[in-house]
Amino acid sequence: MRPPLTALAAAVLLTACGGVSRHCVGEFEYQRAQTLPVPAQVDGLAVRDSPSALQIPPPPAHPVPFAREVEDPKKPGKMRTECLDVPPPLNLKAEPPAPDAAKPAPDQS
After folding, report:
1. If you average pLDDT over residues 81-97, what whole number do you get?
2. What SS3 class is residue 11?
3. pTM greater than the 0.90 cutoff
Protein backbone atom coordinates (compact mmCIF):
# COMPACT_ATOMS: atom_id res chain seq x y z
CA MET A 1 0.00 0.00 0.00
CA ARG A 2 2.89 2.38 0.71
CA PRO A 3 4.55 2.40 -2.80
CA PRO A 4 1.37 3.52 -4.64
CA LEU A 5 0.83 6.25 -2.04
CA THR A 6 4.45 7.41 -2.42
CA ALA A 7 4.13 7.49 -6.20
CA LEU A 8 0.90 9.47 -5.95
CA ALA A 9 2.50 11.97 -3.57
CA ALA A 10 5.49 12.38 -5.90
CA ALA A 11 3.18 12.96 -8.89
CA VAL A 12 1.19 15.60 -6.99
CA LEU A 13 4.38 17.39 -5.94
CA LEU A 14 5.75 17.41 -9.50
CA THR A 15 2.46 18.75 -10.81
CA ALA A 16 2.44 21.48 -8.16
CA CYS A 17 5.97 22.52 -9.15
CA GLY A 18 5.02 22.92 -12.79
CA GLY A 19 6.50 19.68 -14.05
CA VAL A 20 8.33 20.00 -17.35
CA SER A 21 5.80 22.16 -19.19
CA ARG A 22 6.60 25.79 -19.95
CA HIS A 23 4.04 28.41 -20.84
CA CYS A 24 5.82 31.21 -22.64
CA VAL A 25 3.74 31.53 -25.81
CA GLY A 26 1.18 34.30 -26.14
CA GLU A 27 0.57 37.61 -24.45
CA PHE A 28 0.09 37.66 -20.70
CA GLU A 29 -1.80 40.08 -18.48
CA TYR A 30 1.35 41.68 -17.06
CA GLN A 31 2.47 42.54 -20.62
CA ARG A 32 -0.63 44.72 -21.04
CA ALA A 33 0.00 46.63 -17.80
CA GLN A 34 0.15 50.40 -18.07
CA THR A 35 2.08 52.88 -15.98
CA LEU A 36 -0.19 55.10 -13.91
CA PRO A 37 0.35 58.85 -13.86
CA VAL A 38 1.78 60.54 -10.77
CA PRO A 39 -1.03 61.35 -8.30
CA ALA A 40 -2.39 64.87 -8.61
CA GLN A 41 -1.49 67.47 -6.04
CA VAL A 42 -3.49 67.20 -2.84
CA ASP A 43 -4.00 70.21 -0.57
CA GLY A 44 -1.52 70.03 2.30
CA LEU A 45 0.56 67.27 0.71
CA ALA A 46 3.86 68.00 -0.97
CA VAL A 47 5.08 65.24 -3.30
CA ARG A 48 8.86 65.35 -3.46
CA ASP A 49 10.96 64.15 -6.36
CA SER A 50 13.48 61.89 -4.65
CA PRO A 51 16.67 60.90 -6.51
CA SER A 52 16.63 57.56 -4.67
CA ALA A 53 13.07 56.73 -5.72
CA LEU A 54 12.69 53.74 -8.01
CA GLN A 55 12.01 54.71 -11.61
CA ILE A 56 10.34 52.51 -14.19
CA PRO A 57 12.55 52.52 -17.28
CA PRO A 58 11.03 53.21 -20.69
CA PRO A 59 10.22 50.18 -22.83
CA PRO A 60 13.14 48.94 -24.97
CA ALA A 61 13.42 50.14 -28.55
CA HIS A 62 13.68 46.55 -29.81
CA PRO A 63 11.82 44.23 -27.40
CA VAL A 64 12.91 40.60 -27.26
CA PRO A 65 10.06 38.08 -27.47
CA PHE A 66 9.64 35.79 -24.49
CA ALA A 67 9.23 32.82 -26.84
CA ARG A 68 10.53 32.18 -30.32
CA GLU A 69 10.33 29.39 -32.84
CA VAL A 70 13.70 27.76 -33.64
CA GLU A 71 14.69 24.72 -35.67
CA ASP A 72 14.89 21.58 -33.56
CA PRO A 73 18.40 20.07 -33.94
CA LYS A 74 17.11 16.64 -32.88
CA LYS A 75 14.34 16.68 -35.50
CA PRO A 76 15.57 18.33 -38.72
CA GLY A 77 12.84 20.19 -40.56
CA LYS A 78 10.75 20.59 -37.37
CA MET A 79 10.38 23.72 -35.27
CA ARG A 80 10.22 23.99 -31.49
CA THR A 81 9.41 26.78 -29.05
CA GLU A 82 12.35 28.19 -27.12
CA CYS A 83 11.56 30.20 -23.99
CA LEU A 84 13.72 33.12 -22.87
CA ASP A 85 13.81 31.89 -19.26
CA VAL A 86 15.38 28.55 -20.22
CA PRO A 87 19.14 28.44 -20.81
CA PRO A 88 20.29 27.28 -24.24
CA PRO A 89 21.13 23.59 -24.60
CA LEU A 90 24.66 22.57 -23.67
CA ASN A 91 26.79 21.47 -26.61
CA LEU A 92 28.78 18.47 -25.38
CA LYS A 93 30.63 17.81 -28.63
CA ALA A 94 34.27 18.71 -28.11
CA GLU A 95 35.80 20.67 -30.94
CA PRO A 96 39.36 19.74 -31.94
CA PRO A 97 41.88 22.26 -30.67
CA ALA A 98 43.09 24.79 -33.21
CA PRO A 99 46.71 24.33 -34.31
CA ASP A 100 48.94 26.65 -32.36
CA ALA A 101 50.90 28.87 -34.75
CA ALA A 102 53.30 29.87 -31.98
CA LYS A 103 54.75 26.36 -31.67
CA PRO A 104 57.94 25.85 -33.64
CA ALA A 105 58.05 23.06 -36.20
CA PRO A 106 59.76 19.86 -34.96
CA ASP A 107 63.47 19.47 -35.83
CA GLN A 108 64.09 17.27 -38.86
CA SER A 109 67.69 16.26 -37.97
Report:
1. 77
2. helix
3. no
